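Entry:
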Amino acid sequence: MKIVLVEFHQESNSFNPLPSGIEFFERSGMYEGEAVRAFYGDKPCALAGMLRAIDESGATAIPGCSMFASSGGPVEHGVAEHFLEKSRSIVMANGPVDGVFVSLHGATQTTSEEDCSGYILEAIRGAAGPSAIIAVSTDLHANITDRMMEHADIICGYRTYPHQDHYETGYRAAKLGLACLTDGVKPRMVKAKVPMIVPASGYSTMSGPFAELIRYGEALERSGKLADFSIYQMQPWLDVGDGASAVLAIDRDPKRAESYALELGQRLFDLRKSFRPDLLSVDDVIERAERNRSGKPVVLVDAADSSNAGATGDSVAVVRRLLARGSTLRTAIAVNDSPAADRAFALGVGRTADFTVGGSRYPEMNPPLQVEAYVKSLHDGVFVQEGPAGRGTVQRIGPSAVLQVGNISILVCRQTAGNGDPGLFRAFGIEPTLQELVVVKACGSYKAAYSRMTELIYDADTPGAAAVDLRSLPFRRLPKETYPLSELDGYRVHEIVHARRGR
């Protein structure tokens, strides 16, 4: 058997006005052919999991094109076309192929296509033909559209948040895809549509009701009642017409898959109000940090400006309040601000000068701030994540500088990455445990690492394209009959979509 592997991974935020161009993908690396195996084969990622499953089966893995980018605004459509041109070429050159296994994020839109993932799978289906098996791995925050269901045989999503099972998800998807090729009775996939979105900072699989729901699904799997399941909390900053959370259930018995998809979907929907985080004002969090005598840092979660969620990452709202209050808290914050980093490099270490910080990307939402800053250090921006989530992953945030404004250490860079990992600060000389206030621009990825450091973690009501108060955002395309745009009390999950059949 011949299996082609490809990857297109980017999480889009519809409210970020800056499109993601090819440079976003070049920054993380673009690979083709055997370079895909050479780079990803030993990494904790979906492609490595797929490669292992294919190698174990004795089938031939044919690495195609991999394009991976950080979250951001909608992808420039030409970038997706570039990926498809290369992917179709590898499929056609090796045809007929038995399958195409695809690593996607699943919550991606382009400047022309609301449903980029469905668009990609439709194009791959056209190249591979009706009999090829298409198996897909996705993020837990994917938007599983009807179009994706039409063109894929298998879709598997992460089951952890913070995400720690990229490899395992790729392996699951590939094993199920291979089963479609080798077993007498193919597993069937069913989707239950769940009309809800909730802020990603409101839940975790480490503990709480969402974790319990995942454990329940895993118990169904262990007992043999389901072959596989995925529970999707759709990325809530995706303003698209076919947008919703979802549950996928896979089993050889399509009726059983349908029954459990509906049950898990209803359980998810019934938990929706428990996923609403308690927000404190920035001043409230600062006051708690000023009163703190535990010796542990206070973490202010600025989820609204998380570039992990596609926001611009250029807000200095917390810095503004610290300066306005005359606070002397030792504070760490990272800001996407290329002009400030460039100015620091032009001045050199040890110089003090006036800087404009923040608002370099979205000044209408994140106004800039004028400060006098000392250039403390300059860096190439390469660091390795500590984990546990993504441990060992190499991140590149571009030429970066640490600016000191009183007791505030501001890391300015091209593009933050690994936002929830303490390595983002430690690699640049800022030790989080020695700070009194750490501003973390992430929705949930920080929990695995920072909860080991301190229990003093507070969600703050901050501005940004990934605002936690979803009703404050200007949704235009998302169906109005979606919680929390509508309360939908008493709603029963009933919409079912079966994956393609009869091919």
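The chain has a mean pLDDT of 95.
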